[in-house]
Amino acid sequence: MLLPAIRRSRRPLRSRLASEGGAGLVRVCGGYSPDVVYARAGDPIRITFLREETASCSERVVFPAFGKSAMLPYGTSVVVELPPSPPGTYEFTCAMNMLRGRLVVEERR
Ligand SMILES: [Cu+2]
Questions:
Q1: pLDDT grade, residue 71 (50/70/90)?
Q2: Which is more confidently placed, 73 or 20?
Q3: What distance in angstroms lies between residue 107's CA and the mean position of ligand 1's atoms?
Q4: What is the biggest distance separating any 2 CA atoms in the chain, rounded to whole angstroms?
Q5: How many angstroms separate the alpha carbon of residue 100 from the centre of ligand 1?
Q6: In a domain, 69, yes or no
Q7: Which residues span the domain enclosing 97?
Q8: DSSP strand E in the chain: where?
Q9: What gap in Å lies between CA 96 and CA 102, rounded to an integer?
Q10: Would you state the pLDDT for residue 24?
Q11: CATH number of the domain that 53 lies in?
Q12: Where in this chain does the record put each EfeO-type cupredoxin-like domain (predicted)?
């Protein structure tokens, strides 16, 4: 977000910041896309999941560090709200810990 558009980055493609009005959209189909979501430290976090498959593996997403999980009905946007958090990387997974993604909370500048 803060990088000039012309600068090439090897980092994974960024979704919009999950802390900016819930714009972090993660599609769920055989995995999480994107599998890295960014938020700013100290801001409430909203991540929207849209599950585009019926495979039961992905029917629940779990945020272990937050003690939070959510069911993801097929084809329905589900918003997961997490509290403002310190900088760090927080994993999210399916209930079997097979599908994995990361929430990266970045220092405020
Ligand atoms: Cu699974």
A1: very high
A2: 73
A3: 31
A4: 41
A5: 9
A6: yes
A7: 24-106
A8: 24-28, 32-33, 36-40, 45-51, 60-63, 68-71, 77-82, 88-94, 100-106
A9: 16
A10: 76
A11: 2.60.40.420
A12: 30-105
Query: Is residue 97 assigned to a domain?
Result: yes
Q: Taking a C-beta distance cutoff of 8 angstroms, is the pair 58, 99 a contact?
A: yes
To the question of pTM greater than 0.70 for the whole model, the response is: yes
39: amino acid identity, one letter: A
Residue 8 has pLDDT above 80, yes or no: no
Encode 48-61 in three state secondary structure. Answer: EEEECCCCHHHCEE
What's the gap in Å between 53 CA and the centre of ligand 1?
A: 12
Query: Cα of 93 to ligand 1 centre, how many Å?
Result: 8
CA of residue 3 to ligand 1 center, whole Å: 34
| Residue whose tokens read 């909370």 | 105
